[in-house]
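User: Predict the structure for this protein chain, please.
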Amino acid sequence: MLYEAKRCGVKFSPASIVIIYQHTETKKIRKRIIPLRNFSKYSDYSLAAERLKNHPRHRDYLEAVSQSQLEKLHIILRDHMQGFSLEHSLASFQLDPDQDLNKLDDEELARKKGQMDELFEKNRRRKDDPDFVYDLEVEFNKPTREKCSWDDESDDEF
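Assistant: Here is the predicted structure, written as structure tokens:
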């Protein structure tokens, strides 16, 4: 690996990916701006990120950048082109436990499920882990339930 990516970001006008990288031999830090010429608000972000990562001109610089990171940068650019704010784009990457996933479109639902899978794999305990405990039992506090009048009536019938 000749280049080590340190930071990456987006530039809205013109639509570009910005990579700050370090040359591993000379230790010089440089900035590379990669224009996204054919990317529009209707483009598929995953396909565009995959094409960019495999592009012969940019492949060496993007080797250390993950595919998911490039997809996130493309989503931010696409949302900006659609008129959404940066805060809206960044909030879409956060997992909200109270959010109703039934109201999301297929693309956003797939993104949320991917985030949940990543979080699960990160928190998963394997047999090889040093803090692994077999057959772990955990007591959870049960919230007190409010009694309703129809609950009392149904008890008498049985």
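DSSP finds five helices and three strands in the chain.
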